[in-house]
């Protein structure tokens, strides 16, 4: 009702809106604040309220584009190149993750191991305790990464386009071509973000 009044009569003051609805300005103030913060209305001092012209989908899209990797990243589960395939399988199981990130001293990313990599290596009669993960991992620079300041939407696009379950979140190291791993973004991360958005919009 408030949006319709502003759409039809804007610019219009809060007092005028309250008058149309037979309410006090104080009663209406929280609703106007929510509609303005949500982006449905624009407010200008000494002028009044305007209809922004944006739909709920447009506002949701704008909000999604503002979500950053930095705010949603989780702790990466890592191992060393010398770690055996057997120990990597145990780590993946115990940590309940689908991807392990391989690092060298200083936390610099050198490789990635997926469930599929471990499954392939376990086929046959090989001794998994003697095979290091460095033999089966995907190496840099063939690893898709994301940065802290990157949008969560862009990270989701990388997950889908590259058909991977997880992305390492990295920042530049001190040396040439060194990337320090500082987090991870997974398909679960993206799902969690959308659930939070949905719960927030229903409040």
From TrEMBL:
This is CBS domain-containing protein. Keywords: CBS domain. It holds the Pfam family HTH_11. Residues 72-128, 137-203 form the CBS domain. Gene3D superfamilies: CBS-domain (3.10.580.10), Winged helix-like DNA-binding domain superfamily/Winged helix DNA-binding domain (1.10.10.10). The lineage of its organism: Bacteria, Bacillati, Bacillota, Bacilli, Bacillales. It comes from the Bacteria. It comes from Kroppenstedtia guangzhouensis. CDD domains: CBS_pair_CcpN.
């Amino acid at each position: 009702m408030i949006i319709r009044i502003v759409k039809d009569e804007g610019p219009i003051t809060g007092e005028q809106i309250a008058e149309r609805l037979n309410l006090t300005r104080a009663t209406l103030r929280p609703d106007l604040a929510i509609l303005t913060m949500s982006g449905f209305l624009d407010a200008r001092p000494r002028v009044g309220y305007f209809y922004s012209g944006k739909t709920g989908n447009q506002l949701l899209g704008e909000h999604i584009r503002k979500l950053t990797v930095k705010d949603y990243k989780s702790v990466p589960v890592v191992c060393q190149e010398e770690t055996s395939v057997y120990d990597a399988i145990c780590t993946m199981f115990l940590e309940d993750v689908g991807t392990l990130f391989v690092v060298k001293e200083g936390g610099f990313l050198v490789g990635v191991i997926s469930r599929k990599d471990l499954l392939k290596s376990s086929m046959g009669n090989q001794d998994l305790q003697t095979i290091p993960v460095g033999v089966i991992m995907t190496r840099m620079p063939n690893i898709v990464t994301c940065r802290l300041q990157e949008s969560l939407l862009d990270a989701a696009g990388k997950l889908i386009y590259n058909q991977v379950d997880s992305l390492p979140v990295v920042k530049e190291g001190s040396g040439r071509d060194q990337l320090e791993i500082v987090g991870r973004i997974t398909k679960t991360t993206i799902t969690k973000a959308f659930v939070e958005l949905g719960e927030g919009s229903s409040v």
